[in-house]
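Design review, sub-item: ligand-bound model
Attendees: FS, YL, KQ
YL presented the inputs for the S-adenosylmethionine complex:
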Amino acid sequence: MSGPDACFVLYCRSGYETDLSTECEYHLADKSSYGYTKYEKNSGLIALYTPTPELMPAIDDIVFARQKLRFLQSLTFVDKSDRITPVIDALHHTKKDYYGSVIVEHADNERAKSMAKFCRKFTVPLRSALRNHGILSKKHDDNKKWLHLVFDSFDQCMICESTVGDRSPHSQGINRLKFPTAAPSRSTLKLEEAIALFFDKDSEKAFFNNTKTAVDLGACPGGWTFQLVSRGMKVEAVDNGDIATSLMDTGLVHHFKTDGFVYKPLHGKVNWLVCDMIENPHRVGELIIKWIQEGWANGAIFNLKLPMKNRFATVKDILLTINKRVNPKSNMQIRAKHLYHDRDEITVLIMPK
Ligand SMILES: C[S@@+](CC[C@H](N)C(=O)[O-])C[C@H]1O[C@@H](n2cnc3c(N)ncnc32)[C@H](O)[C@@H]1O
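KQ shared the predicted structure:
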């Protein structure tokens, strides 16, 4: 006889709940299991139930998930003057120093935004009480589970936990980046977030430095080129528009006013192809496949603009095609994420393992 189904709480961009649900259900069905979901539209969060929690994909393998939490229990606060005691009571069975951090948060939706200040303020006394009761380690610890309190209103929260290697390190699963004032467009944050997600600091330095070259398709006004040039790279920027003068003045950028679908690298090959062209995602997928197959670039980071409907089906279709065509020997890594700074688009990485 099987026990009750396990429940996960997953965050996404508000409006993408159906896509995230469909994606998780697809992965579980693919492993001959199943999951069912409950969510409110535009809530920025889904609850997923499954009898086989061990078959849930890791957060890195769920394109539309910003965070993946295991749900433990719900709490309703009767006495608004003391929300700490019920949390401590709920966790009193927990082993000593079980959690390495506590995050008090709310889903990223319009209604819950009013909770932001409360969540920040509540964290400090809660953290101290959890430490006094031996539930939370004395110092922040990345190698332990983290406790998450997800508030839906001032009277209710969900107690959840995240696991090592299977979580976003950021509150709400959001890497909020400061806009670099010298960058010519806000799009710059998409590439910055992608590099921060897909690379640790050491590998970032190894793959993006002044010995590396790139082609940037759909480069104008130069936000992505800015990220590459800031790391000392030489960039061939391809777009019919204008590139910011500040970037041209670095001497690291060659600008080509031509169609990104016909451009070939000046010297036959570059280290990176990046592409943010607003074009049909299937067409962009085919173009990236061509660049990797021809050996024009070792790796690629690119955006796929999403259609209004069947977004997960489109993403699945293109990623499966890319995987089949550029990765028959499984020697490439292919990762995709709906980033916080992405809007109706996802960001994909392809590079040798
Ligand atoms: C979202 S903007 C790129 C923003 C840029 N990544 C940045 O950070 O500043 C999309 C760009 O794609 C360009 N584009 C669209 N189709 C293109 C094509 N076929 N060839 C070259 N550029 C194209 C547009 O001219 C536009 O400048």
